[in-house]
Q: What sequence folds into this?
């Protein structure tokens, strides 16, 4: 007995429970078509007159009969009036009940979530406060697909007024990040107002998608260290970044103006990470920039190359100013004699078409590519 009761409780939802509007709609269609067929059989009218008679009868408009009715036709009319009144009333009551219970709202939310899951190579922005709004504006100018995750109703309304898709959910939960497409996005930005909330977002995102690029907002140096330990690839403090920009403007105004002009043009700066596997580099392994001729083949310019730190046999050996921590080497404005090696990071400037051709030249050697923003 208990097994039968359990089986009944676990019965999957029927089509009626999934589509509560289906039954009254079918009933209305049955009444309309049955009445039209009745007029067709009893009166011999064409289908246009039959359906017009059904429409004015059920709607109780009272324009008058299409043609004089026989006794059988009048019986069909009585059936149409009775069935129409009952079915239409039930249909209206059902639709009103569905609206009051939030069925149509849940249906729109389900369609929106299905659309979100189809997104690819987008940026997930957690938090649409003052910092989030600036981030969103920059991404919109760059025409990057963006999804906002927000729990505050006011911020959600502001993002929707801007025309942005908003997932109204808690960004610190794993299921929210999965719904936002953490496995298909190009990067995630944690711009919530709380350091603790950003830390939770970074921990959840890093656990779900180890290869996802994570950028987090921090209000203090201590919070920044914890965010990096949690797995953030880049931690940005609005106060530190703002101070650096102001100092750079005071010391090097032309350089700051150049970056502003660069951000507003179709020219971009992108990072190209080479694979750690030398076999994937193929013929590019060990070849110099002069031999490869990136400029001639793609039109893009290599601004800098960062070589990964070398592996050391003794991790406690003294190297420079730190113990046991070999540092990466950064070469700016590299000459033609610089050779490509596995694990290098190339910083390249060019238009979107030039950067795409640059990626095509790298081919299988390319591990990932990320656009740089200031």
A:
């Amino acid at each position: 007995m208990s097994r039968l009761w359990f089986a009944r409780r676990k019965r999957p939802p029927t089509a009626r429970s999934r589509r509560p509007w289906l039954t009254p709609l079918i009933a209305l269609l049955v009444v309309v078509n049955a009445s039209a067929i009745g007029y067709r059989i009893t009166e011999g009218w064409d289908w246009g007159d039959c359906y017009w008679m059904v429409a004015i009868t059920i709607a109780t408009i009272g324009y008058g009969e299409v043609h004089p009715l026989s006794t059988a036709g009048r019986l069909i009319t009585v059936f149409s009036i009775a069935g129409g009144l009952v079915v239409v009333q039930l249909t209206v009551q059902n639709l009103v009940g569905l609206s009051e219970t939030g069925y149509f709202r849940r249906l729109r939310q389900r369609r929106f979530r299905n659309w979100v899951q189809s997104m690819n190579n987008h940026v997930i922005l957690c938090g649409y406060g003052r910092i989030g709004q600036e981030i969103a504006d920059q991404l919109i100018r760059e025409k990057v697909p963006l999804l906002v995750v927000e729990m505050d109703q006011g911020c959600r309304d502001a993002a929707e007024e801007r025309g942005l898709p908003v997932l109204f959910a808690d960004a610190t939960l794993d299921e929210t990040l999965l719904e936002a497409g953490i496995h298909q996005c190009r990067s995630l930005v944690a711009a919530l107002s709380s350091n603790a909330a950003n830390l939770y977002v970074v921990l959840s995102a890093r656990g779900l998608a180890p290869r996802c690029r994570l950028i987090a907002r921090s209000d203090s140096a201590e919070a920044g260290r914890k965010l990096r330990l949690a797995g953030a690839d880049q931690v940005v403090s609005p106060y530190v970044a703002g101070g650096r920009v102001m100092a750079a403007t005071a010391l090097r105004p032309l350089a700051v103006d150049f970056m502003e002009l660069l951000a507003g043009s179709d020219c971009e700066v992108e990072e190209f990470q080479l694979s750690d596997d030398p076999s994937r580099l193929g013929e590019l392994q060990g070849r110099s920039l002069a031999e490869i001729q990136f400029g001639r083949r793609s039109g893009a310019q290599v601004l800098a190359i960062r070589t990964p730190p070398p592996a050391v046999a003794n991790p406690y050996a003294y190297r420079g100013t730190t113990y046991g921590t070999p540092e990466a080497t950064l070469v700016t404005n590299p000459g033609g004699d610089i050779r490509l090696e596995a694990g290098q990071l190339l910083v390249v400037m060019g238009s979107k078409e030039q950067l795409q051709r640059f990626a095509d030249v790298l081919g299988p050697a390319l591990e990932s590519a990320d656009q740089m923003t200031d």
Summary: Residues 1-16, 315-325 have pLDDT under 50 and may be disordered. The first helix runs from residue 2 to 9. The longest strand covers residues 267-274. The chain has 17 helices and 13 strands.
